[in-house]
Specification:
Helix content: 10-25%
Largest sheet: 6 strands, antiparallel, barrel
Strand content: 35-45%
Number of helices: 2
Distance between the termini: 21 Å
Shape: globular
């Protein structure tokens, strides 16, 4: 496996409903589905995930945490950038299965640095998906 990715020993799917967020991901080129969830047992960080939406499987990059670069709120959130997806997901229930962890949550000095890191995260996730046999939607 890629040295930047750590595999889980168990993969526990969870379901969350997409709710409106700050739309920052969309503004920086990585729109996210913000999930309304009561509980998520995963540690804060960035993960490669598989998402089931209406029996269609998508690959994605998920962030769980308090968004320290934004600093707008300290509420723990779960948001997923779906690869190769365009459309409106508000109100949809997504079933998400984490496959591997990419990195810990980190505070960046600027939105440009955050955007560059998200590009790297997507690239790492795509390599990780290929290594474990996922080709995408």
């Amino acid at each position: 496996m890629d040295s930047n990715v750590s595999a889980f020993q168990t993969h526990h799917p969870f379901i969350g409903t997409v709710v409106p967020g700050q739309k920052l991901g969309r503004r920086i080129g990585f729109p996210t589905a913000n999930l309304d969830m009561s509980e998520n047992s995963l540690d804060n960080g960035v993960y490669g995930v598989v998402v089931n939406l209406h029996e269609t499987i998508y690959l994605g990059v998920m962030n769980i945490g308090v968004k320290p670069t934004i600093g707008a709120d300290t509420k723990r959130t779960t948001e997923i950038h779906l690869l190769c997806f365009e459309g409106d997901l508000y109100g949809e229930a997504l079933t998400c299965t984490p496959l591997f962890k990419i990195r810990e949550e980190k505070k960046f000095e600027s939105l440009d640095q955050l955007t560059n890191q998200i590009r790297k995260d997507v690239s790492i996730a795509e390599r990780g998906f290929k290594l474990i046999g996922y080709c995408g939607s």
